[in-house]
Amino acid sequence: MDYEVAFAYGSEGLITDSVNGVDEITVEDGAYFFFDSDEEMIYSAPLVSVVYIKRV
User: Fold this and answer.
1) What does pTM read for this prediction?
2) Cα–Cα distance, 6 to 14 (Å, whole number)
3) Which uninterrupted H or E stretch holds 14?
4) Dmax over Cα atoms in the chain, in whole Å?
5) I want to staple 43 with a disulfide (CB 3.0 to 4.6 A). Which of 7, 8, 13, 34 is the partner?
6) What is the pLDDT of residue 12?
7) Dihedral of CA 34/39/42/46: which sign?
8) Which uninterrupted H or E stretch holds 50?
9) SS3 state of residue 23
């Protein structure tokens, strides 16, 4: 599945990233972790900075 992740870092404003090929999303140690079907982490984002995660 493909997701759009939006997060905010200080004065940089809202930043969006496309994350493709996601098989699983977990929350651990204050962050979201995105994994592919090979169980490899392909993306991470701090929990407190994420504004939204949307499947596209």
Assistant:
1) 0.89
2) 7
3) strand 14-19
4) 36
5) 34
6) 83
7) positive
8) strand 50-55
9) coil
| Predicted pLDDT at 52 | 97
Report in angstroms the alpha-carbon separations of 12 from 3, 27, 47, 51: 21, 24, 17, 14
Sort 50 into a burial class: Cβ within 10 Å, 0-12 / 13-18 / 19+: middle
Sign of CA dihedral 51, 31, 15, 10: positive
What single-letter amino acid sits at 50? V
Which H helix or E strand runs over 33? strand 31-35
14, 8 Cβ separation under 8 angstroms: yes
**Residue labelled with tokens 């090979």:** 38
Per-residue pLDDT of 2-48, as tens digits, reads: 999 999 988 888 999 999 999 999 999 999 999 999 999 999 999 99
Please measure the distance between the N-terminal and C-terminal CA atoms of the chain and give it in whole angstroms.
Answer: 8
